[in-house]
Amino acid sequence: MSTGTPLIQIRGLSKVFRTDAGEVSVLEDIDLDIMEGEIFGIIGMSGAGKSTLVRCLNFLEMPTMGTVYFDGQDLATLSQKELYKVRQSMGMIFQQFNLLMQRNVLKNVCFPLEIAGVRKTEAEARALELLELVGLSDKASAYPSQLSGGQKQRVAIARALANNPKVILCDEATSALDPATTKGILALLKDINRRLGITIVIITHEMSVVEEICQRVAIIDNRRIAEVGYVQDIFTRPATEAARRLVFPEGERVDHFTSSRCCRIVFNGSSSFEPVIANMVLEFRQTVNIIFADTRNIDGKAFGQIVIQLPEDKLMGEKMMAYLRSRGLTVEEVKDFV
Amino acid sequence: MFDPVIIEMIGKGFLESLYMTLVSSSLAYLLGLPLGIILVVTDKGGLKPCPWLNSVLGVIINLLRSMPFLILCITVIPVTRFITGTSLGPTATIVPLVIGAAPFIARMVESSLKEVDKGVIEAAQSMGASPFEVIWKVLLPEARPSLILGAAISVTTILGYSAMTGFVGGGGLGDIAIRYGYYRYQTDIMLVTVALLVIIVQVLQEVGLRLARLADKRK
Prior knowledge:
The structure holds two protein chains of two kinds. In chain A, about 35% of the residues lie in helices and about 30% in strands. By secondary structure, chain A is an alpha/beta fold. In chain A, the strands form three sheets. Chain A has a six-stranded mixed sheet, with helices on both faces. The longest helix of chain A has 18 residues, at about 180-195. By secondary structure, chain B is mostly helical. Chain B contains ten helices and no strands. The termini of chain B are far apart. The interface of A and B includes residues 98, 114, 116 and 163 of A.
C-alpha cells in the first residue's frame, strides 16, 4: 500500500533528558523513513526509548539534536502556531486511551474539530460519521466511563481521525487490551489504512502486533535503531541480537545440546495420532533434540525412525527411554551419532 | 428574651454573613482561580514551565496563608479604608476576607487541576491544542467536580473567617455571637447564632457535594 514517498523522515535524532540526577540519553542518532500509506512498526523492549521516539514525531518532545521532516516540512523550523497546525494532521492514540472523562463520546470526537475551528453542527455531523466507521454510533451520548477498553480505543481512533490526518501514531495502543479486543482494534487500524490510505505508525513491545499488521518494522534497542526492514525478512532472518530476542523471546533459555547420548526410536505401526515425543517432553519438562527423523503416516499408523539426543542427565535419559518403551515403541541407544 | 428586636438583629446578621461570604468568595475566586491556574501551568512539567514565577508566587501565597487571619484584618485596615471608606461593617470586611481567602483558593484550585490526567493533556496537545485551549477545554472542564468540591470547602472556610471578623467589628452572625455571647454572657443568643452558622455550613457543604456528584461523569 506504500506509495514509496516518505511521509516522515527522522534525521540524526537524539534526545537527552535533563534530570536532577544528571543527563540521561534516551535516543541516539536515529535515522528512519516512514513511507506514505504503510503500516510501520517500531518495536523494542520497555525502556528502549520508543515512546519518546513517537513523541518526537509530533514534537510533543523536542529532539535534543537532529530533526523530523513531516510531509517535507522540517518540524524544527516551525513556529509554535505552525506546529499546532501540523499536529492536526497527525492523529495519535494511546495505551490508556486518554479520553476526556467529562465529555460524552460524541463530544470527545468533536474535540479535535473544535481545536481546528470547525463549526459545531459540522463537527457533530463529522463525529457521527466517524463513530459509524468505528462501529459505535449507538454510544454517541455515553460517557467514556461507561465503555469497555476496546470501545474506548475505538472512540480514540475516531477522535484521531477527525481532522483527516495523514498519519496515526499509536503508542502501545493495544497493550492494555485483551487478545481478542487487540485483534479487533488491529483489524480496524488495518481497515483504516486500506480504505483511507492513512499511514500508521505502531509503537509496541509485542512482536505479535507487528506480525499481525505491519509491513515494515524498526527494532529499537538500547537507544538506537538496531534493524529496519520488512517484517517477514526480520522474522525469518533476524540479523541482530535485539531482533533475535524479540522474534524468539524465549531464545536465551534454549539449552545447547552437548550430550552425546542418543537413542533411536523405531515406529512400526503405532498410532500416528499420539504425539509421543511432545508428550514425553511435557511429562518430564525436559527438552530433547531431534537430530534425525524419517517417518511417514500410513493410514493413521506411524512407520520409520527418529533419532533424538537425550539430556545430559543419565537418569533422565533412562527414564525417557523407559517412557518410550512403555508407549510400545522400540527404543535403542546409539553411540557416536553426533 | 427573644423579643422582635433581637430576632430582627439575628436575621440581619444572618443576611450580612451570607452577603460577606458570597461576595468575598466570588471576588476571592476572581483572584484565586487565575492564580491557581498559573501555579499549575508554570510548575515544572506544566504547560509553560517557569520556575522563578512559580516559586515567587508560591512564597507569596504561603506567606499570606501563614498569617493569622485577625492580624491580617488589622494589617490591611489602611487598604480597607482606602477601598471602602471605612474599616467597620460587612462591606469593609470583604477586603481582608478576599485577601485572606484568595491564596487559600489558589492552592485549592491548584490541587484540583493537578488531579487531571497528564495523558489527557498530552492527547489534547497531540491534536494541536494551544496551552490556552488546554486550560480552557481540558484542565478546567476535567477538574470541574473537584473544583466544585473545593469551592464548597472554600466558601465554608470563608464563612468561618467572616465570623472571626466580629472581633474587629465586622458585622454578621459572628459579630453578634461575640458581642452578646462573649462580652455580655448571653449564652442563648450565642447558641442561636452558632446554630445558624452550623446550618449554613451544612447546607453549603451538602449543596457542593451534590453539585459535584451531578457534574461528575466518571461513574
